[in-house]
Specification:
The structure is a single chain. The chain is an alpha/beta fold and 511 residues long. The protein starts with 26 loop residues before the first helix and ends with a helix. It is 43% helix and 12% strand. The structure holds iron/sulfur cluster (2 copies). One iron/sulfur cluster binds next to loops.
Length: 511
């Protein structure tokens, strides 16, 4: 059976996966995900705008993100639910987009993949009770436009509008997370694991972690974050649980190695799940939109008893176990969201004015398996000592166990949080530019981003919407960008693929 998917960075030969996904997605699953996407577009065209349909659109798009759902049964069930709510005669097949001329395909892909990433942020806000009907309506509008024949300039405007709306969703999620769990505070997190039963929680969902912490308190089970859950340690209402002990392992692409025979239960709350190996398949649990064939799925009632029982049965390590990050460090510092950084903004501005801080780099984004991603470790190692590194998302694991020291009491490495906390970086940049009375592009600030899946796409669109120039993107450029569309981005925004850390540092520091 054939398939076509080119939505992520690891797509086959930099062109598209056509027989099986490099991510492990089978052709059948990929085609079902295309069918689901087509049905969601039909729903946007032919369904009422109401809460049920909005949720179907948001969760349906989230289901099709890379490394979220490998389970054909659950995707088929979802398609049926969507079909029931399509109220007029309509027929749309997303494959017609894959077959369009390459510029239209490129722009529609940018919009669709941006919507998928944004759907993840909308989902996380909604589970905490934070919704905004006005911005939700954009999902209907944009999906409808994807099904129409539109000129390039209209599609280009819609690409930027997707970035604009994504900024609003990131803002809403920031509000949801901070009003529910408190303002993130700087904290040190260990990578070492204590003996005894434990549960590893991965993905991005703060609510799932919070519910699990409540259900496991006083049970003699320790909880460790993994991957993008690491920033949870910074939230006071999550950190208050003494059995939230530390962080297990590194970024998602190392999970098959790091979970091999681990004596603990593993809960996936969202992506990135990889094909599950035999050595740990009896201890993997999924919840929410993430599903994998034959793994136990925890439903919306969020009764984590099977996860708890499995962790007790496995018993954890017999002795305390020393583990490190990829550079050998065993302490990770988190909690530099916009409120914390802005509380010392005067210090940062003084350091910029005095020349003590020559440049600020935002180095982060999604991590992945390609060897070229060592660039990000090398970039941070080679960045001069009078520079500050802001970071976010799982790309930080390339360097977050290193001690980079301080400048005038300001840590050189500031972990702002999950990928959606790009909102924090934007807020800090805007505030500094206001005080210095210049544009963001005039600040001694550069974006050096790694991308992998569709959340990285919506963040990139937000940065473009804000007019941010000179972004370095890697390790490769998206396969879905046609040469004409890439040229537009290069001409207008001076976006470039990463080269070597030395060349890029030289160029960015001379700006
Ligand atoms: S998600 Fe990525 S790796 Fe998986 S099938 Fe699509 S392009 Fe290929
Ligand atoms: S930041 Fe991207 S690549 Fe990393 S875990 Fe999250 S979704 Fe996956």
């Amino acid at each position: 059976m054939n398939m076509f998917c080119f939505q992520c960075e690891q797509t086959a030969q930099g062109k598209g996966c056509t027989l099986q996904g490099v991510c492990g997605k089978k052709a059948n699953t990929s085609n079902l995900q295309d069918e689901l996407t087509s049905k969601l577009i039909e729903l946007a065209n032919c369904g009422e705008k109401n809460e049920i349909n909005t949720e179907l659109i948001i969760d349906g798009l989230f289901t099709t993100i890379t490394n979220v759902n490998f389970d054909d049964k659950s995707i088929k069930k979802f398609i049926k639910k969507v079909q029931r709510n399509i109220k007029c005669d309509t027929n749309f097949d997303i494959k017609t987009v894959w077959d369009c001329n390459e510029d239209t395909r490129s722009l529609k892909s940018l919009i669709l993949f941006g919507l998928k990433g944004m759907a993840a942020y909308a989902h996380h806000s909604r589970v905490l009770g934070y919704k905004d009907n006005d911005i939700d309506n954009f999902f209907y509008e944009a999906l409808q436009e994807i099904s129409k024949n539109l000129p390039t300039y209209e599609l280009l405007n819609l690409v930027l509008k997707t970035g604009e709306i994504n900024l609003k969703y990131m803002q809403l999620l920031d509000k949801a997370n901070t009003e529910t769990y408190g303002i993130p505070e700087p904290r040190k997190v260990t990578t070492n694991i204590e003996k005894g039963p434990f549960i590893i929680v991965t993905g991005h969902d703060l609510r799932d972690l919070s519910l699990l912490l409540e259900q496991t308190k006083d049970k003699g089970i320790n909880i460790y974050t993994h991957g993008e859950m690491l920033p949870c340690h910074a939230y006071p209402k999550l950190n208050k649980y003494s059995h939230l002990k530390g962080n297990f392992g590194t970024a998602w692409q190392n999970q098959q190695k790091e979970f091999d025979n681990v004596p603990a239960a593993i809960l996936f709350t969202t992506n990135c799940i990889m094909p599950v190996k035999d050595s740990y398949k009896d201890r993997v649990f999924t919840t929410s939109v993430v599903e994998y064939p034959d793994m136990v799925h925890i439903d919306e009632n969020k009764d984590f008893t099977p996860v708890i029982e499995k962790s007790i049965e496995l018993g954890g390590y017999k002795e305390d176990k020393k583990m490190t990050g990829i550079n050998g460090g065993d302490t990770l510092t988190v909690g530099f969201g916009h409120k914390t950084v802005l509380s010392v903004v005067d210090k940062v501005i003084d350091a910029i004015k005095s020349g003590d801080v020559k440049h600020i780099f935002l180095v982060g984004g999604c991590d992945g398996a390609r060897p070229g991603r060592n660039y990000y470790t090398d970039f941070v190692k080679k960045a001069p000592k009078n520079t500050i590194i802001l970071t976010l998302a799982c790309g930080k694991y390339r360097f977050n166990d290193m001690d980079l020291g301080e400048i005038n009491g300001i840590p050189r490495l500031l972990d702002m949080g999950q990928c959606n906390d790009a909102y924090s970086a934007i807020k800090v940049a805007v505030e500094i530019s206001k005080v210095l009375n210049c544009s963001i592009n005039d600040l001694p600030l550069s974006f050096v981003l790694s991308w992998y899946e569709q959340k990285a796409v919506c963040i990139l669109l937000t940065l473009l919407y804000l007019g941010i120039e000179n972004i370095k993107l890697g390790p490769t450029l998206p396969a879905f960008l046609s040469s004409n569309i890439l040229n537009i981005l290069v001409d207008k925004y001076k976006i470039k693929q990463i080269k070597t850390p030395e060349e890029d540092l030289k160029e960015l520091l001379s700006r």
